Amino acid sequence: MNKMLLIEDFKPIKIEDKPIFDKYYKKYPPVHSDYVFTTLVSWMDYAKFCYMINNNNLIVASKINNKIQIKSPIGDKNKNIFDEVLKLAKQQESEYPFGVIDKNTKNWLENNYPNLELIPTRDYFDYVYNSTDLAELAGSNYSKIRNRLNKFKKNNEYSVESITEDNMKDIREFLKRWCLWKDCDKDPLLENEKKAILYSMENFFDLKLSGLSMIVNGDIEAISVFEKMSNDTAIVHYEKGSPDYDGIYKAINQETAKILQKDFKYINRESDMGVSGLRKAKLSYKPVFMIEVYTAIKNSI
After folding, report:
1. Rounded distance, CA 51 to CA 17, Å?
2. CA 20 to 30 Å from 257, out of 172, 213, 269, 282?
3. How much is the pLDDT for 185?
4. Which residues contact 3 (CB under 8 A, 6 or more apart)?
């Protein structure tokens, strides 16, 4: 018999919990970026992620602006578990207490809970690309991107290095400069992203992340941070570049894809969080598909 779910039984996610998540993700690879352990642990300050295990299912919840939202359980789809999760979700104050539901789970829920109203959360759809498209930028779809990239290459000598312990100090210095350029502390989203990326870099090797740094005129002027998400997909968590070099984002994007295409068919570049400039940029790279996610409306639970 399943133990009744209580919000008090959820524990804050810590880096020491990585082996627990790794074990589940070996069997049930994350489909959406919001489930990736690096995302969960790095954004703790903002989203207060917590988890519990019930009947061989891993259940994650977030608390943003004091509103709790429970994610879809990770494990074999078990109606008893979903009954409990929905019961717990209904007790929360949030209007959308059950969310980040992928399309397959949505279809399963619609069959098992026909009254449940699920709405798409477009701002959090993940963008997924063919790695070879991003590495080669072939064809008319990418002509504008190629033009800016070629201009950058013509005007700048640059080299690319893997992120290692040897250059980590310089990378942190670059990120501090990047935050000054972007005025991170004035924008709540950027301020939280700054905390997340600095946490990722401090725990880079424990999180088993990989990354590239781009050196222009002797200084690091761009970086990317990525990892395996599933057997055929890598996820790019961060790409940051100096505003002093037009086209540098195009360059670090391509260099990252060149590395990743050797091992992965797809690259997940996460969502645009509803930021219009980011949406335009992500769409310009022509995703092959989106990872759609849905949220349940409380009144329908």
Report:
1. 10
2. 172
3. 86
4. 54, 55
- Alpha-helical segments (H) within 124-269: 131-136, 143-155, 168-182, 188-202, 248-260
- Fold designation for 7-121+293-300: Aminopeptidase (3.40.630)
CA atoms of 291 and 299, how far apart (whole Å): 25
Q: 93: which 2 tokens?
A: 């104050």
Question: Cα dist. 252→110, 175, 234, 236 in Å?
Answer: 41, 15, 16, 11
User: Domain 126-270 belongs to what topology?
Assistant: Aminopeptidase (3.40.630)
Domains 7-121+293-300 and 126-270 share a fold: yes
Rounded to 5°, the CA angle 172-178-183 comes to 130
Burial class (CB in 10 A: 0-12, 13-18, 19+), 231: exposed
Tens-place pLDDT, residues 109-134: 999 999 999 999 999 999 999 999 99
Strand, helix or coil for residue 257: helix
Domain extents for the chain? 7-121+293-300, 126-270
Q: Check residue 2 and give its pLDDT.
A: 55
Q: What is the pLDDT of residues 218-234, one digit of tens each?
A: 999 999 999 999 999 99
Q: How far apart are CA 204 and CA 164, in angstroms?
A: 9
CB count in 10 Å sphere of residue 105: 19
What pLDDT was estimated at residue 190? 86
pLDDT higher than threshold 90 for residue 145: yes
Distances (CA, A) of 285 to 131, 139, 199, 281: 11, 12, 28, 7
User: CB under 8 Å to 242, separation ≥6 — which residues?
Assistant: 174, 177, 178, 181, 216, 221, 222, 248
pLDDT digit string, tens, across residues 175-207: 999 999 989 888 888 899 999 999 999 999 999
For the segment 74-86, the average pLDDT, to the nearest whole number, is: 94
Decide if pLDDT at 3 tops 70. Answer: no
